[in-house]
Structure prediction request, 208 residues.
Amino acid sequence: MANSKVYLEIVKQLREMINLDGLKSGDKIPSERELSERLNFGRSSVREALRALELLGLIETRRGEGTFIRDFRGNQLVQLLSTFILQDEKAKRDVFETKNFIEMDCLRLALQSVDNEQIEVMSDWVKTSEQFADDVFFQRIVEISNNHLFLRIWSILKEYYYSLHTPLLTDKREYYLDLLEGLAERDHDRTLSAYGRIRNLSYFTDKN
Prediction:
């Protein structure tokens, strides 16, 4: 097995172990030796995987105490980026554009996989919910697309974006309902046209 595959397999098994053991942020994970025995990999391979995860900020090693799961779902990184990096106007636009591209790709995936029951549930929620919000709507769309990597990237970009902008609250629920009707009809153009109106993207709105 190539080194990269060993690393990926260790990370996969670590994730499964964390879920199985019910570990959460702040909890201590087993030592290198214990992980090596439990996962059936050499200690050097386990050490490299842990080092990579620490560089990514997912775990932290405390001298004399052990290795712990970090609260990487918090907003410390978001605040840091918005303070130092995302003050640049182009960087802000890049976040917005990338978030839009992911949403559009997820709509294309949803066109292939969404079922009528999901659309009916979302339509009822859009029409009646007092907690209706744009970010919740698109989180559901991304979840329907069933691409977990898109969901993780979109969630991070959303946090970056809303660290700089007030979450979008809109009375234009008819745009969202039109998007859902486009999904129900498996109508690519109608779906993306409605998305363009929601995001006020001239590429779509000028065409219609």
